[in-house]
Amino acid sequence: MKFSIERAALLRALAHVQSVVERRNTIPILSNVMLKAEKGELSLSATDMDLEILETVPAEVSSGGATTAPAHTLYDIVRKLPDKGAVEFESNGEQTTLSVRAGRSNFKLGCLPTEDFPQMAGSSLPHAFELGASDLKTLIDRARFAISTEETRYYLNGIYLHAAKSGDVAVLRAVATDGHRLARVEMPLPDGAGKMPGIIVPRKTVAEIRKLIEESNGSIGVSLSDTKIRFAVDDVVLTSKLIDGTFPDYERVIPSGNDKVLEVDPRTFAQAVDRVATIATEKTRAVKLSIDRGQLTVSANSPESGSASEELEVNYSATPLEIGFNSRYLLDITQQIEGDGCRLLIADSASPTVIRDTSDASALYVLMPMRV
């Protein structure tokens, strides 16, 4: 196998594929990227057995073939090469070593047999639709902060994606929760998604597709079955297993009778919470909201650090109320609100609070209070 490729194109592709490869692997072949050169293009693929990425880039192929090379090492080499110029690759007849040359730099890497490289079993993906890159970006960004990292509740370790009804309108809905907060985001249902099953996209897959769409402005092809999902982004195809579990009935967690309405500027509110939380204890990060007519006092107390409070003007006309929240969770939610108004719907100091963007009905957040 012998080919040459522009360094910039190779670096971009390697950045995508090496990201999937775990730093520590008990199976050596999973540390490698597969390189396959044929007919004027190079395809690079990597997998961790649950997630597979394949990217194709143009290359000058003198003789075709395939080999595997250490993914992170190869990425580091190409990253450190001079900006301009081509990188030449050549493997020996037995495909046991790969020579990498650029200018006066010359590297030799050990290879592993291509037949050991695992391929994700092919299966039909009957449901297919397209999403704009910006739409998918919004769904992910507004929901993923609430994904649970608790491995015992594995069915919460991802974003629940499903077709639903919002009033009479069919929507594609993304939901994530860790038991303390919940994010629900929706957009009009794309053509072809009407009969899709409810699926849980794993946290790592969410992170990888988010990186890929950062560089894309076009549409993203999504195809899925009960067990797998595939994203096609420009020249990259990302295929992932789905979480095999049942997402809880999140609708039961969203309260509908919260009658006390607090409206506040989200940026001013977030800044006040952030400042006051400097005093909060590291373990609980608790802040207290004392709400009265037209005024909100954000405060925190800590035996070690002292106390802090800040007053804000707000729209509130119900009975006075005190409620406590984890400041980190509160900030995670307020950072998702892009409009000029943030609405908190509160029942009492012990019940879940609903938080919404007053200018955008597509997102809804639920936050559990805490004792302060």
Give a quick precis of the structure.
With 372 residues, this protein is an alpha+beta fold.
- Which segments are poorly predicted (pLDDT under 50) over 5 or more consecutive residues? none
How are the strands of the biggest sheet laid out side by side?
A: 6-2-3-4-17-16-15-10
Tally of separate helices = 6
- Secondary structure: number of strands: 25
User: What is the residue-averaged pLDDT?
Assistant: 94
Major sheet, described briefly?
8 strands, antiparallel
Give the termini separation. Answer: 66 Å
Helix content: 10-25%
* Overall geometric form: elongated
Residue fraction in strands: 35-45%
Radius of gyration: 25 Å
Q: Strand pairing plus helix content: what structural class?
A: alpha+beta
List the helices and strands and how they pair.
Elements: E1 2-6, H1 7-18, E2 32-38, E3 41-47, E4 51-58, E5 60-63, E6 65-70, H2 71-80, E7 86-91, E8 97-102, E9 105-110, E10 127-132, H3 133-143, E11 158-166, E12 169-177, E13 181-188, E14 199-202, H4 203-213, E15 219-224, E16 228-233, E17 236-241, E18 260-264, H5 266-276, E19 286-292, E20 295-302, E21 306-313, E22 321-326, H6 327-334, E23 342-346, E24 353-357, E25 360-367
Antiparallel strand pairs: 1-5, 1-7, 2-3, 2-6, 3-4, 4-17, 7-8, 8-9, 10-15, 11-12, 11-14, 12-13, 13-25, 15-16, 16-17, 18-23, 19-20, 19-22, 20-21, 23-24, 24-25
